[in-house]
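$ ./design --mode recover --in tokens.txt
reading tokens...
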């Protein structure tokens, strides 16, 4: 994913048996004032250190805050602000409409319009492109639990002791959110983010909204299409989440794709052994990876100011396997070579710039807001199993077939220990809204089977298959496959889905 790692009617809602339903008009539930609000457009830069705002201003975008109810069942109560950016169509004579963009994560997306304009080819200049920070993230009522890490993804490692430490880590993350999450936390969910999207549509004065979402953004788009199907124009869903499997355990089932992608990377790295020194064959490179992990179990690797143990290493590998182009493969090979040197010498080895960024993300709280907001959404959507021993049994079972990534995908999460259950059931995604789904057969985050699951749930959709690529979000990530790009951009311009189920080759 870029942030790198789901009913026809308007947006008035009544609580019925714990599930929020959508009546037929915005005004019916007291939401009319939100839909008809006036937006005050302003510069995006919020201070001297605001690099996102500076880039948006440089590109010609403008920003605004959209007022939405904290609780859609009580629209007369407390409100929050949802931050959006807009880059207006540079070809106004051929303007198609407004397209809202989400890059996955879940993470902030206010920065995305200038980037996506470049990705979208001939379609880019014909849309007003809107980025929106989902509630709990970025500038939209951001949640910060004061985490010591920016991510809740922490593998269990090679031993029971590593698993126990992982459980303690996740318990601490959940406890921090219970203590510092505030009274906004119960109202953070994908369903409410979709409702916020529709308020944004109304405040922009648009009858319909186009949408381009990747990874988590595909689930968000599918929920929006289910709740507000008559408000959808064009919809692109890139590397899709199977809505039937959206939960805190959504990474389960991806370990095989990651082990396969690691093997493909090992073949690439073996052909460059003179540079990286990790082995002259796929088998030898993989043996080096496992040897390094065992060394990190005996003594954590000293990488700059950081210590990398056997549990952390698979997480860093996982982060490097979502793109099979030469540049990301080289970055991962360089990182593993640094681990190798630290394991062989026992000395402190300085990280590369990419590895420094990864270690900082995993081992410091500098971006605590990112992980906190992400977990608030995922834990707010669905409950996780709470039987800790069940996680350990699953890890032991899957370790045989996926020794590196099984202990990551089956590990506990903060949601295992979340202090409160979701306020409503997940939206049952089932819709005939036309949508174009893009899926790579080697996707390591949302597997090809996951995209097929969304394809089945959206009966009016079409599926583009990119065969032979280990890449996540091939369209939004700018993978550069001409076949995929041409099909997606033609649809975004014409609004006509391609016939059949097109297959593109890597």
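writing sequence...
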């Amino acid at each position: 994913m870029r942030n790198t790692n789901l009913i026809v009617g308007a947006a008035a809602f009544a609580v019925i048996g714990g599930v929020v339903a959508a009546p037929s008009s915005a005004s019916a539930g007291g939401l009319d004032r939100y839909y008809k609000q006036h937006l005050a457009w302003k510069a995006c830069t919020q201070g001297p250190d605001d690099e996102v705002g500076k880039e948006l201003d440089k590109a010609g975008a403008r920003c605004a805050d959209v007022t939405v109810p904290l609780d859609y069942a009580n629209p007369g109560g407390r409100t929050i602000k949802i931050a959006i950016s807009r880059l207006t169509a540079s070809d106004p004579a051929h303007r198609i409409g407004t397209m809202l963009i989400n890059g996955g994560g879940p993470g902030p997306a206010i920065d995305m319009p200038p980037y996506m304009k470049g990705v979208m080819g001939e379609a880019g200049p014909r849309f007003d492109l809107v980025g929106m920070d989902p509630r709990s993230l970025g500038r939209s009522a951001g949640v910060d639990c004061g985490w010591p890490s920016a991510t809740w993804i922490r593998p269990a490692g090679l031993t029971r002791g590593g698993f126990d430490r992982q459980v303690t880590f996740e318990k601490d993350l959940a406890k921090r959110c219970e203590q510092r999450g505030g009274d906004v936390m119960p109202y953070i969910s994908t369903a409410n983010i979709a409702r916020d999207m529709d308020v944004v549509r109304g405040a922009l004065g648009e009858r319909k909204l186009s949408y381009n979402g990747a990874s988590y953004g595909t689930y968000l788009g599918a929920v929006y299409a289910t709740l507000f199907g008559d408000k959808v124009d064009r919809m692109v869903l890139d590397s899709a989440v199977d809505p039937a499997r959206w939960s805190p355990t959504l990474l389960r089932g991806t370990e095989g794709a990651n082990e396969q992608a690691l093997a493909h990377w090992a073949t690439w790295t073996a052909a460059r052994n003179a540079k990286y020194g990790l082995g002259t064959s796929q088998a030898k490179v993989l043996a080096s990876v496992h040897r390094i992990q065992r060394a990190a179990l005996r003594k954590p690797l000293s990488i700059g100011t950081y210590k990398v143990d056997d549990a952390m290493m698979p997480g860093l590998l996982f982060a490097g396997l979502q793109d099979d182009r030469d540049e990301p493969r080289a970055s991962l090979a360089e990182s593993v070579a640094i681990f190798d040197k630290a394991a062989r010498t026992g000395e402190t080895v300085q990280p590369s710039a990419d590895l420094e960024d990864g270690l900082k993300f995993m081992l410091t709280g500098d971006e605590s807001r990112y992980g906190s907001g992400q977990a608030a959404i995922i834990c707010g959507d669905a409950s996780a199993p709470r039987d800790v021993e069940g996680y350990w049994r699953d890890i032991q079972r899957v370790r045989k077939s996926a020794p590196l990534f099984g202990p990551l995908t089956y590990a506990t999460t903060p949601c295992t220990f979340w202090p409160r259950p979701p306020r409503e059931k997940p939206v049952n995604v089932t819709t005939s809204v036309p949508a174009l789904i893009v899926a790579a057969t080697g996707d390591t985050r949302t597997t090809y089977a996951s995209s097929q699951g969304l394809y089945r749930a959206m009966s009016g959709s079409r599926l583009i298959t990119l065969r032979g690529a280990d890449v996540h979000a091939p369209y939004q990530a700018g993978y550069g496959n001409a076949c995929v790009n041409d099909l997606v951009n033609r649809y975004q311009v014409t609004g006509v889905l391609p016939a059949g189920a097109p297959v593109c080759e890597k």
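exit 0
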